[in-house]
């Protein structure tokens, strides 16, 4: 068991955790991030294949109003580009009606993506930190408040800290990390009844050599009420020389194999585009329900956005030693990348005031 001392321990090296560590650089304190996965990024995951368009299997889009995220991207010298939707969409309203090409209503609000993939912001933040500050494959198993410090234990480490910040989804935090002394009952009930973004999503994508969906009388924007692919979008890269279609699959096919999900998706796309879809370069998917460090099994249904941004998440606990952060805790744009960045800003201000 290795013993480490750090001023701030951040649990989770996703966007909130990495952004908070980046902000804390301006203070003369030691910061350590621990990540249970082998990879960093949390619910941001871009699948990169050589000579193929990046496929976003996690957080992807943002809008002009997401000012904190956009400012951070500018600071990190990361470029953005507008999501292409086109003027039409393929719409499948019901099994009784064949897919039809409809006109998309004009919108003054554009959606944007990060050039070279959303993972770029994760990599850029990581590069701003020292290598020794991030420990992967390190799942915190317990937290205990002691006289003068707070102790966090994993299988291989004991961390003695002044402050701990959890950036885990609140439900997962409550289910996987016992805390002594126990948190207030009101907070525990809140943690157990807070919706986790992406927890049951299935994101999939196909890369192609040719963007056949950009031809006449067709579209790369797909909406279906009845087929396995519910929302699908053009996902070509910023330079428009690498091509992909990416979107969300019906969560009801969770129990299928990857091969079965791929075939169901291809059969649906064949209805719209013909046999050309069989010439795909790669098929990628991420079933977020299988991500044990994003979600935990639950009893009952929690409404989307339920308790996101709740006032109790804005407080500190265990005599100002424990903070609960993450996109679900943000009072603005919870569940979005903007919410993750704003949560990091909120906790940074709290810690700075204490120091």
TrEMBL record:
GO molecular function: oxidoreductase activity
Source superkingdom: Bacteria
Domain Amine oxidase, first and last residues per copy: 98-347
Pfam families per the UniProt record, alphabetical: Amino_oxidase, NAD_binding_8
Stored InterPro entries: Amino_oxidase, FAD/NAD-bd_sf, Flavin_MAO
Similarity-based family: Belongs to the flavin monoamine oxidase family.
Protein name: FAD-dependent oxidoreductase
Organism (species): Psychroserpens burtonensis
């Amino acid at each position: 068991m290795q013993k480490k001392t750090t001023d701030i321990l951040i649990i989770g090296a996703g966007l909130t955790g990495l952004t908070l560590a980046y902000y804390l650089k301006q203070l003369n304190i030691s910061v350590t991030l621990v990540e249970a996965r082998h990879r960093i990024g949390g619910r941001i995951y871009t699948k990169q294949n050589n000579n193929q368009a990046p496929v976003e299997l996690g957080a992807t889009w943002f809008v002009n109003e997401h000012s904190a995220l956009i400012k951070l991207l500018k600071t990190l010298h990361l470029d953005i580009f507008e999501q292409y939707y086109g003027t039409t969409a393929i719409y499948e309203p019901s099994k009784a009606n064949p897919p039809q090409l409809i006109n998309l209503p004009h919108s003054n609000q554009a959606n944007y993506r990060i050039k070279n993939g959303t993972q770029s912001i994760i990599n850029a933040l990581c590069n701003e930190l020292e290598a020794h500050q991030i420990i992967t494959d390190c799942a915190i198993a317990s937290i205990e408040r002691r006289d003068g410090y707070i102790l966090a234990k994993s299988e291989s480490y004991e961390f003695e800290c002044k402050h701990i910040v959890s950036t885990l989804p609140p439900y997962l935090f409550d289910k996987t990390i016992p805390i002594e002394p126990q948190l207030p009952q009101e907070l525990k009930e809140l943690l157990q009844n807070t919706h986790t973004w992406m927890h049951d999503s299935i994101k999939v994508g196909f890369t192609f050599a040719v963007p056949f969906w950009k031809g006449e009388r067709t579209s790369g924007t797909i909406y279906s009420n009845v087929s396995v692919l519910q929302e699908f979008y053009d996902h070509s890269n910023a330079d428009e020389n690498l091509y992909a279609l990416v979107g969300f699959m019906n969560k009801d096919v969770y129990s299928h194999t990857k091969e079965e999900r791929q075939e169901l998706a291809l059969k649906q796309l064949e209805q719209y585009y013909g046999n050309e879809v069989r010439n795909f370069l790669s098929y990628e998917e991420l079933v977020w329900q299988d991500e044990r460090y994003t979600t935990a099994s639950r009893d009952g249904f929690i409404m989307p956005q339920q308790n996101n941004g709740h006032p109790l998440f804005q407080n500190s606990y265990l005599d100002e030693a424990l903070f609960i952060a993450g996109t679900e805790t943000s009072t603005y744009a919870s569940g979005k990348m903007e919410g993750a960045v704003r949560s990091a800003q909120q906790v940074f201000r709290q810690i700075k005031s204490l120091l």
